[in-house]
Amino acid sequence: MAGAAGPGTGPGAAGGDGDDSLYPIAVLIDELRNEDVQLRLNSIKKLSTIALALGVERTRTELLPFLTDTIYDEDEVLLALAEQLGNFTGLVGGPDFAHCLLPPLESLATVEETVVRDKAVESLRQISQEHTPIALEAHFVPLVKRLASGDWFTSRTSACGLFSVCYPRASNAVKAEIRQHFRSLCSDDTPMVRRAAASKLGEFAKVLELDSVKSEIVPLFTNLASDEQDSVRLLAVEACVSIAQLLSQEDLEALVMPTLRQAAEDKSWRVRYMVADKFSELQKAVGPKITLNDLIPAFQNLLKDCEAEVRAAAAHKVKELCENLPPEGRETIIMNQILPFIKELVSDTNQHVKSALASVIMGLSTILGKENTIEHLLPLFLAQLKDECPEVRLNIISNLDCVNEVIGIRQLSQSLLPAIVELAEDAKWRVRLAIIEYMPLLAGQLGVQFFDEKLNSLCMAWLVDHVYAIREAATNNLMKLVKKFGTEWAQNTIVPKVLVMASDPNYLHRMTTLFCINALSEACGQEITTKQMLPIVLKMAGDQVANVRFNVAKSLQKIGPILDTDALQEEVKPVLQKLGQDEDVDVKYFAQEALSVLALA
Amino acid sequence: MSSSSPPVGAASAAISASEKVDGFTRKSVRKAQRQKRSQGSSQFRSQGSQAELHPLPQLKDATSNEQQELFCQKLQQCCILFDFMDSVSDLKSKEIKRATLNELVEYVSTNRGVIVESAYSDIVKMISANIFRTLPPSDNPDFDPEEDEPTLEASWPHIQLVYEFFLRFLESPDFQPSIAKRYIDQKFVQQLLELFDSEDPRERDFLKTVLHRIYGKFLGLRAFIRKQINNIFLRFIYETEHFNGVAELLEILGSIINGFALPLKAEHKQFLMKVLIPMHTAKGLALFHAQLAYCVVQFLEKDTTLTEPVIRGLLKFWPKTCSQKEVMFLGEIEEILDVIEPTQFKKIEEPLFKQISKCVSSSHFQVAERALYFWNNEYILSLIEENIDKILPIMFGSLYKISKEHWNPTIVALVYNVLKTLMEMNGKLFDDLTGSYKAERQREKKKELEREELWKKLEELKLKKALEKQNSAYNMHSILSNTSDE
After folding, report:
1. A355 with B16: Cβ contact below 8 A
2. Sign of torsion over alpha carbons A494, A497, A500, A502
3. Which ranges in A90-132 belong to alpha helices (H)?
4. ipTM of the prediction
5. SS3 (DSSP) at B63
């Protein structure tokens, strides 16, 4: 094979005989022309196999030109191609030949479909790293320039993602050109291109020299941040995070802050939303001093924004904002400048705002300490526990552990109980499911006595819920509770109640008994399983409903390993054998499966 | 870019627990809660409380000298906005503004010579102040326009009158575009176009007429308007998949395309191929498909040579999983075939009928049925008959197979009729195909096996290479260790 000279192929690669080396490309061409997209897709996905079979030289001289010429296909095929080519450097002969991959990727970077284009850019970025500095300037940079001055917006959008990867390794003259191209894309006629440029502004700023950041990036940022389209302005906010990290405090104050202040009060809610959404990142980027002077007032405004969307995004950030304040004076700032606004949000008109707040508010207790929590936060928690919207209550309950560390959960238990009971009986099963999942946590924090008094009956009631997912979750919940409270507790409180259900007229409830036994047997241990559970299971083998009978077989299979040999041989085996002769095929199947798994057959 | 744009709709902002909440509430239940929702503008709510309005004298009572001055005062008065989300505030002022707007509408439509040069600035200012606003976030991010009630604009009692005034102004015989273009400029149009995203269908309807008038009267803005619509569509297709006014904009474009001069400019052809055709991929195609198909057919009626690229484009984007969209595509193909020239038909018959043959054998009976209905169309039948030698071999396999296998009796009956029609067109070919059907299937199977064989060989070759590589590495290793042994 001619490619033997290429690095990495090794001396043995020349071994392929003439005929063998000819057919891969023929197969590929044939397959790429197949009418069935799926077949075309398959062959593209095996492109590396073909390249490997062809060897590096023929991959370069035959396969790649062929692929470059045939880019017309369905987007799905193109996507696969773009992805493959990113990992092709080794297959074309290593870094010295990486530039051979550029032509097909360049075409792919200009197609309409965003997914394909983005993948092509991703692959190009990958390959750029494999270029030598000389090859980068000779092949890669010209490609970026061609894309950046393409006619149709797609190539210019793709170019935006490539500047930052070639800039650091280019010579000074080329660097100036690259910056020039980026500048012109930032003021492109097409909003799509400006959006692409704005979204890469931060990334590009990071690889620039500080002087260029100040003299070139900042003006671009200011322009994009006052673009006529809000979709461009909001992307500038994102870039702000990266730019701010690069500048000194004075430069920040003079060059960036006026724009950021303006963004926080933008007339479009989307831009304000973005400021709220990126708040923690911004806070870290601008440092404590500007945070206190500028960001806190801005944050207060966002918390009382006219759009619920913005308020919710800001509410989500409350905890992070407070955490990231400098420890010195933090408490005062939170108490005086943040808490009053949070209090308002607790009774917001929009449930999403309240629920966003509820998901983070408990985190404040560790920051503010015991006394403040009891005096200021507790009333808010209690109010939210009584909120009309179940999500708000759920979010509070799901974060109880934060408060537990600070003031203990007892403070809350009086209000907690009604909230839990109400959620436990909520009409939406997903709400019930969510509260079940918190039961083990609550049980651990409230203690066994409180649990037995107030919550045990709820847990048992879920076992007979009319939604299967709830019954299933309730079963798992019991298992977790037993692990927490121990076998003695199980034997006294749970097991008898579960076993009673075995004679329930509703077959679904009878099956629940079996499911509970499956879940509990291991936690309860051999004695309880053998003495209390096994007899019930065996008795149910005579149930008139086939579903119950084959679940008996499944249960026996499940609890078998816990039982001793005597019980297995004398009690389980005869029952399974009988079920193995059942008239119902499923029962037969599961009985036989159990027999063979338990090695009783 | 997806990670950076904020989500549309309130629900997405606060998810943590809501994910756990039942996502399967029936739409009808939700609908009941949502009916008669309304929204105010996002911009407005940030403003403080308003000054109270005081009624001005009636225009018709003023002397002609005073009339102009009073007209402008009234326009200025109407620039003040009121919060309609608060239904009890400023009731008196709201009523005064409503009456004034009504009076203004009446004034410009019944009187001649009242739209004087000095009034344009105030007129456009009043219109801008009222209609240009940031649209609020959608209450319902999964808004399904076929199922859900749209959110209505709360300030409609005023905005409607402003739009009406705007239209009377544009349509007035006194209206002079040469003066108005100082105020109705690119920026104005840009803001107007953004309003097409309004969820309120009444507003979009007004906007449609307004934009149409502006396009008709301002020649200098035409290229700009087309370009901006272009951008809106591209953003819709490739970025957001969300824009409420697509159907309305397409409707305007339909008549714009109608007026294109021949030969078509490259710009217009590019719009067809790079915007209108990819638009068929949109999720909500059903909402604007009629208008879109109309635009496409308009283009083909202008320039028949576009038929081939258009049909190939549609075939490229042919829906793979959405039967409802497939039915729409078939409808559009029929509309195109209705106007196709026989020479153009020859160019695309092969790929087209391969697709139709797939549709005919779709297990979704509506798709199969829609495709089979082509055979009820006299013109299409005549085209098929003319090219029966090409088309019958493509169609035969599927038709033959479904006639034996399809689950739906209506489809089977339709297929029998189609087979009968085709047989009558060329009985000899039909008999030949029937005869070779089995052999054909077997040849296909054989080809399938060959393909598998080839790939297997290729895989082996790859393994062999990997092995060789490993061996050579191993050899190197053993050589080295041998040397060290010595």
Report:
1. yes
2. negative
3. 102-108, 114-128
4. 0.78
5. coil
pLDDT digits (tens, 9 = 90+) for A234-272: 999 999 999 999 988 889 888 999 999 999 999 999 999
**How many domains does chain B contain in total?**
2
Which of B193, B64, B188, B175 shows the shortest CA–CA distance to B120?
Answer: B175
Q: How far is CA A286 from the centre of its chain?
A: 28
- The C-alpha atoms of residue B325 and residue B280 are separated, in whole angstroms, by 9
Give me the residue from A27, A190, A273 closest to B6, CB to CB. Answer: A273
Last residue of a domain, one of B405, B422, B439: B422
Q: Say if B297 falls within a structural domain.
A: no
DSSP 8-state assignment for residue B11: G
Q: Which chain A residues are Cβ-neighbours of B43 within 8 angstroms?
A: 267
Q: Which domain holds residue B392?
A: 303-422
Interior CA angle at A500 toward A499 and A505, to 5°? 120
| Residue B410 within a domain | yes
In this complex, which of B278, B458, B464 lies closest to A27 when CB atoms are compared? B458
Q: At what angle do helices A296-303 and A339-346 cross, to 10 degrees?
A: 10
Domains and CATH numbers, chain A: 455-600 (1.25.10.10)
Token digits of residue B96 = 């005064």
Q: How many CA atoms lie within 13 Å of B457's alpha carbon, on the beta-carbon side?
A: 16
Least CB–CB distance from B13: residue in A152, A199, A352: A352
- Could you list the beta-strand ranges (E) of A311-374: none
Give Cβ neighbours of residue B295 (< 8 Å, ≥ 6 apart).
Answer: B250, B253, B254, B257, B276
Cβ contacts of A588 within 8 Å, gap of 6 or more: A579, A580, A581, A582
Q: Is residue B111 part of a domain?
A: yes
Tokens, residue A329:
């004076």
SS3 call for B78:
coil
CA distance, residue B10 to nearest chain A CA (Å):
5
Residue A100: CB atoms within 10 A of its CB come to 22
Flag whether the pTM goes above 0.90. Answer: no
Phi-psi region of A320 (alpha: psi -120 to 50; beta: other; left: phi over 0): alpha
Give me B239's structure tokens.
Answer: 């970025």
* Residue B476 located in a structural domain: no
Question: C-alpha A27: how far from its chain's center?
Answer: 40
Per-residue pLDDT of chain B (486 residues; tens, 9 = 90+): 344 444 444 444 333 343 344 434 344 444 444 444 566 655 544 444 556 777 787 877 777 778 888 888 889 888 888 888 777 777 888 888 899 999 899 988 888 888 888 889 999 999 999 999 888 887 776 667 677 788 888 889 899 999 999 999 999 988 999 999 999 999 999 999 999 999 899 999 999 999 999 999 999 999 999 999 999 999 999 888 889 999 999 999 999 999 999 899 999 999 999 999 999 999 889 999 999 999 999 999 999 999 999 999 999 999 988 999 999 999 999 999 999 999 999 999 999 999 999 999 898 999 999 999 999 999 999 999 999 988 988 988 888 888 888 888 888 899 988 989 988 888 888 888 888 888 888 888 888 888 888 778 777 777 776 666 666 655 555 544 444 443
Q: How is residue B25 written in tokens?
A: 């509430």
Contact criterion met (CB below 8 Å) for A159 and A118: no
Alpha-carbon distance of B357 to B367, in angstroms, equals 11
- List chain B residues with CB under 8 Å of A192: 231, 234-235, 238-239
Contact A119, A82 (CB under 8 A): yes
Residue from B21, B151, B279 to probe the interface with A (highest A Cβ count within 10 Å): B21
Q: Select from B381, B403, B422 the last residue of a domain.
A: B422
- The contacts of residue A600 (CB under 8 Å, 6+ apart) are A568, A569, A572, A573, A576, A594
